[in-house]
Design brief:
Blueprint lengths: L8 E3 L7 E3 L3 E4 L4 E3 L3 E2 L7 E4 L2 E4 L13 E4 L4 E4 L8 E3 L4 E3 L3 E6 L4 H9 L1 H9 L2 E4 L2 E3 L2 H4 L3 E4 L2 H46 L7 E3 L7 E3 L3 E4 H4 E5 L13 E5 L4 E2 L2 E2 L6 E3 L2 H7 L6 E4 L8 E3 L8 E2 L3 E6 L7 H13 L17 H6 L1 E4 L2 H44 L18 H12 L1
Parallel strand pairs: 20-26
Antiparallel strand pairs: 1-2, 3-15, 4-12, 5-8, 6-7, 8-11, 9-10, 9-12, 13-14, 16-17, 18-28, 19-27, 20-23, 21-22, 24-25, 24-27
């Protein structure tokens, strides 16, 4: 949708506001707010968290102090903002009485509409101006106090116009947020679809009429009758990487090597790799060859895999990474087994006792013993090609949905900023009207309806 500008503007005198409507009043923040400094106890008032979604009941993840009395009191209708720059955007109007951390600034509005204040002081331009007034704690972290904040210049319209702008923003933000939620739901459905497509292809194959047999592995279930169900070690040579220590970080044979975070799902980073000493005696053991499958062996990333495609002429790998190399170099293809690893990891096959909360290590011996279903080489290649095509389509749809979310969020931020600083005139807007939609919003609503 599009809105006109106000018919007449004046200079605000401050950079962050620029020109403002001629009838808006330009005054310092201290004219409209007083700081509430009263202390309160968690035993008396409910503890609150100040988040990017506003003021909410205290989150389970929030840091808790031993002294519940050492908090700031908040009353219904107060505006609360986190003073630290690393919490930028954490602010909002409080819907309830309660207490907040001492790092927050509590403002009591005087003669201004809370709904308008909520949007104005949470807008991106104001947030930037607020933290610009701060003083450094460390090089990349600073905090703003009320004594500094009170000098920020605001431009406010009359109260009835404040109320109208707040109503407009509440309506339009809810509409945009609903579209974002639909796209997020679509992304989850696409993720589930990807998992289902991969799981079916690598355990059941592509022929729906093929005779099946029991695999003897509970999580695998039935597999095509002509597939082999054998331990990974029967089909792949598995080698754990070289241990890094001080004596190996220097030497005459320094070579680039992969670390755990260089191996992401389906992709390997080769930029800025560190060097380790790999003498001739170790080079044969740890040198990578095109077609090697790299598997992370531990932590929350256990099982995460990618194929080495020969991106560098010479590269090695450290401990915490397994290298899987097909025996005889012809019996299997890593392209197929990469999808097997993705499926198995998502099913929690490599997690201790199938307990998803347990962080485990997948030793080489454990990986060798894990049983999987292996079709003949030609069928492995056919399945890998099918999955490459299918997952690429799903990834493209996911990227489109994520891109639309980004555009909608940018639109949301821009709309709020324009409305609360007077860059658009929405006085003629009514909630029940059907305004002209932007192409982006029409596309979003169509996707939300039809997927």
């Amino acid at each position: 949708m599009s809105f006109p500008r106000y018919p007449e503007y004046k200079e605000s005198g401050v950079e962050w506001l620029g020109e403002v409507p001629a009838h808006w009043v330009v005054k310092r923040l201290s004219h409209y707010f007083e700081e509430r400094r009263e202390k309160a106890s968690d035993a008396e008032f409910a503890p609150l968290s100040v988040t990017k979604n506003g003021v909410v009941p205290r989150l389970e993840t929030a840091a808790k102090t031993q002294d519940g009395d050492n908090r700031k009191k908040v009353c219904v209708g107060d505006f609360v903002i986190n003073s630290r720059s690393d919490r930028k955007g954490s602010a909002g109007l409080s819907p309830t009485d309660g207490t907040v951390s001492l790092i927050c600034i509590v403002l009591e509005p005087k003669g201004v509409k809370g709904g308008f204040v909520h949007h104005l002081l949470r807008s991106a331009p104001f947030q930037e101006e607020f933290y610009r007034y701060g003083k450094g704690i460390v090089a990349d972290l600073w905090s703003t106090s009320f004594s500094e904040m009170k000098n920020i210049v605001l431009a406010l319209p009359p109260n009835d116009e404040q109320k109208h702008i707040a109503t407009f923003l509440d309506h339009e933000i809810a509409r945009i947020d609903a579209l974002v939620e639909e796209q997020q739901h679509l992304i989850e459905l696409l993720k589930e679809k990807r998992q289902a497509v991969i799981s079916h292809a690598v355990t059941k194959g592509l022929d729906p009429d093929v005779p099946m047999k029991g695999s003897g592995v509970e999580w695998l279930g039935e597999v095509p009758e002509h597939w082999d169900v054998v331990p990974t070690g029967y089909r792949y040579e598995i080698q754990l990487g070289r241990m890094l220590n001080e004596t190996r970080s220097s030497g005459e044979n320094l070579k680039p090597y992969l670390r755990v975070f260089d191996v992401q799902w389906g992709a390997i980073n080769t930029q800025g790799l560190p060097l380790m000493d790999f003498p001739p005696s170790a080079q044969k053991t740890y040198r990578l060859e095109p077609g090697d499958l790299m598997v992370n062996e531990g932590g929350s990333y256990v099982g995460r895999s990618a194929i080495w495609r020969g991106e560098l002429n010479e590269c090695y790998y450290q401990k915490a990474l397994h290298r899987l190399r097909p025996r005889l170099h012809v019996s299997d293809t890593a392209d197929f087994f990469l999808y097997v690893m993705e499926m198995a990891t998502l099913k929690g096959v490599f997690v201790a006792n199938a307990n998803q909360t347990t962080i485990d290590h997948l030793t080489a011996e454990q990986l060798r013993r894990h049983k999987f279903a292996f079709p003949p080489l030609a069928e492995q290649k056919e399945i890998a090609r099918y999955l490459e095509e299918s997952t690429t389509k799903l990834e493209r749809l996911t990227e489109e949905a994520q891109g639309l979310i980004t555009l909608l969020q940018e639109r949301r931020s821009a709309l709020i900023s324009a409305a609360v600083t007077g860059k658009i005139d929405i006085r003629g807007w009514e909630a029940n009207q059907q305004p002209e939609q932007s192409e982006m919003l029409m596309v979003a609503e169509e996707r939300a309806t039809y997927g």
